[in-house]
Amino acid sequence: MAQARGNTRQRIQSVALELFAEQGYEKTSLREIAERLDVTKAALYYHFKTKEDILIGIFQDLTAPMDELIAWAGGQPRTLETKQEILRRYQVTLIAAAPLFRFMQDNHAVVSKLSVGLTFKERMLTLNDLIQEPGSSLTDKARCISAIFTLHAGTFFMANVEGDPEDKQKAVLEVALDLVEQAQKGH
Question: What is the structure's pLDDT at 187?
Answer without folding.
Answer: 65
